[in-house]
Specification:
This protein is an alpha+beta fold and about 160 residues long. About 35% of the residues lie in helices and about 20% in strands.
């Protein structure tokens, strides 16, 4: 009986972190994908209407300002976000924090450190990127990062499920 309990304990030690990692990944994916899609549409509409992307918000300003491991509403009227007239197709209460950066063709000036970690450099056309940092378990030292851009609309991740 002791051997069976020991085996179950060892299996649980191996399986539980993987299970919780997958749960965090699915929660983040369910939130990030539709929000990035909404923001992408708004940025492209802004470009079509005005001939350029809006002023950059950058990686030093996040919306919402803080997420304490619980759902918090996005501030769609926040400085930098208001010109986009974002109308979300889903819930505005989020677990992740969001930002975007924009820039001119070939100009790397507005590219932050996290976008650089994803390998982003300014393309030969005006550009934007979207970035999310997610605290899916209430531990602010363990973040998952999500990134997409006008150059590559795939959503890429770093430290997903951590």
């Amino acid at each position: 009986m002791m051997f069976v309990l020991a085996a179950i304990g060892i299996l649980a030690t191996i399986a539980l972190p993987s299970f919780f990692g997958e749960t965090r990944k699915s929660k983040a994916s369910a939130e990030v994908q539709p929000l990035f899609s909404d923001l992408r549409v708004r940025l492209e509409e802004y470009l079509q209407e005005r001939g350029s992307y809006p002023a950059t918000v950058g990686e030093s300003t996040w919306n919402p300002a803080a997420v304490p491991g619980a759902r918090v509403s996005l501030d769609l009227a926040a400085s930098g976000w208001a010109p986009l007239h974002v109308r979300l197709s889903g819930d505005d209460a989020v677990l992740c924090r969001y930002t975007f950066a924009t820039g001119l063709a070939g100009d790397n000036a507005n590219i932050g450190a996290q976008a650089t970690a994803f390998g982003f450099t300014a393309p030969s056309a005006n550009w934007y990127y979207l970035l999310a940092k997610c605290d899916m378990d209430g531990d602010p030292t363990v973040l998952s990062w999500y990134f997409t851009s006008s150059v590559d609309t795939r959503i890429r991740s770093l430290d997903e499920g951590r």
